[in-house]
Records
---
Amino acid sequence: MGPRSLPKLFKILLNGKSSIRFLIGSIISLSFSIAVVLCASGLMDGFDHSLRSALEFSNGDIKIKKKSGYYLNSKEFQKKLGAKLHTSVLDFQGMLISPKSQGVFVRGISPIAFGKITSQNFSELSDGVYVGSKLVEQMKLKVGDAVTIAFPSSTAKEQGRATIQKFVIQGVINHHIHEKDMRMIYINKDTLLKIFNLKAQTTNSTIIKLKDGLDSEIVALDLQKKLGREFIVSPSWKEFEILLEAVQVEKNSISIVLQLIVIISMLNIAAFVIYVFEKKSLEFFMLRSLGLTLKQLNMFWFVLLGTVWIISCLLSLLGVKLCNWALLNLSLFKIPGDIYVLSQLQLVLNLSDYAIVFGISLVWLILIGSLAIYRIKKRSLAVSLKEGFA
């Protein structure tokens, strides 16, 4: 038997509807199990990516805040920041008292500078306010409506008193984080400075946008040393650090558990190999008697398993695409933002994720396939031909 032995073996394998159905079922089973592992991993990474992106969208890459009180955004302070793109903001707690009462987080911004850092559009912001999308939805407000906000006093003498101001809604902003969309209100920083009678450079927070490729945590540590202990410097994602760490732990745990599904699909493939060999043992051993070597037979089985693996991986990619489309487009998969922070998820996978999942499935396939082939090789040629003719 020469190079034509492989096609003959495949012809024997595919002869009969039961064998073809078993093969198709094994491929679908393996592709489904790989897709499940990829989707679980991509869902966790998607949550991590979406949350970090949303936080950068509202807070830039790094946030600087003084432990207590205000500070001046002076030239000396800016010199310590270096050439990084930054802007100062004024953050206050307040109370929206019309049309309903609701605690809010008021942020005074310089519209153009803040927009460059967060990529949000505040071009229409002048004397009015921009309101979070969920807050607008809950309060049944719209652009052009008037709202009243109560601010706490900024001086010790007037502690306990509130400053009440009325504003017109000039725009709606969507942070893609439920908590922020429910509480955030943006006001022109100059307007807040007048309300609280503060100097022009007064601020209590600064946000920074980094160049691509820089590690926000490393830069934050460097700035912390320069600014001293009176300031708190942290990456934008720090406020959800515990949640992000929990997601990574859950990702690793689920990926390990889901390997059981992959192993079950591998057992189906092992059962297919044994089933085909038992059913078509006479044809295989007839070829052995005509000169088919064990090396050629082994090559056939591993080529078969490799083909099954490749087709399964390709089908799993299709399954991942369908799952991602469903998450983004079907209301059935919309999650409650007040519980899960985000109201919508997407799958995020990189090459390393595919390499790990596909690689592990290939290792399982080779291991279990080898055990099945080893069982076949143990059978005697003479005994098998006798059983086949009998």
---
Amino acid sequence: MTKIGIVGASGYSGSELLRFLANHPGELQVALCTSETYAGQRVDSVLPHLRGFLSLDFEALDINSLKAKVDVVVLAVPHKVAMEFVPPLLAQGLRVVDFSADYRLRDVDTYEAWYHVLHTSPALISQAVYGLPERYREDIRTARLVANPGCYPTSAILAAMPLLDSCAVARDSIIVDSKSGISGAGPKPRDNTHYPNRESNVVAYNIGVHRHTPEIEQELSAVAAEPVCVTFTPHLVPMTRGILSTVYLRLKQEMSTEAVLERYAAFYANEPFVRVLPAGEYPQTKAVLGSNYCDIGLEMDARTNRVVVMAAIDNLGKGAAGAVVQNLNLMFGLPETEGLQVPGLMP
């Protein structure tokens, strides 16, 4: 039995991870949940949807005692905080999956420029594996440190990857337009997530400066084997969870919708959590709500020779906690789909 410790388990991503793991049929067992806010309280009194599924108490974090309790630690904490915990955890011989952005970007200068903090353990960046199984599956199996992808990048990368592994797309004209539910901002109340400000309201934010931009560019550049530049505009929409990313790619050659769909279907033929939709059918966030699936649909705009690719994920599922379970399954030799093959909650 693999024992899992979740640091910061009372937040949205941490609690969603607990929900996925509560019914995991394999060898993954939650042995420790920490929360500085709720230490000493029962998990299911703070997270009542887990009543009857988990009988643990939240604990205060004692970083040096974790080796005696768990085999792997999942860090569900913000950036900058994670980099304080990772070095002592690895030094204890523990494996780590990190929700934060602290080890996603391979270039420390890029990280410091976009996140405006000094990276305190840059030597560990080269040891981290970017936790997107559809790209790095074999590396994840043996990784000591897995950097779980961001939610926006997951949808954008999966939408663009099948065309960027060839020379079919102009690399300098990629547009990513994303709509997200407000749970991506976390549980702490803010003006921009306050219900009266969000209900019946859609707004773009961080145009040209969103921190997920270099992550998207890094991974798409790796696929293309040359630099890729994107224009990324995120929006908040009045729903709790879900992301719909629309990616615009200018093709260098004429292709029909059917031909592009065939390429996507072949590319993802063996991917259990990417569903390529038939021609004329487009993704919707409700279809993936509460799941680890990514639905992809597309349409060729012959007039502009652009292909419009849409990807829908649950930002707390495939964009966060579901991906962690997928990575944990790989890291500990379990079937990759274990505990994750559940449909979305529609309507």
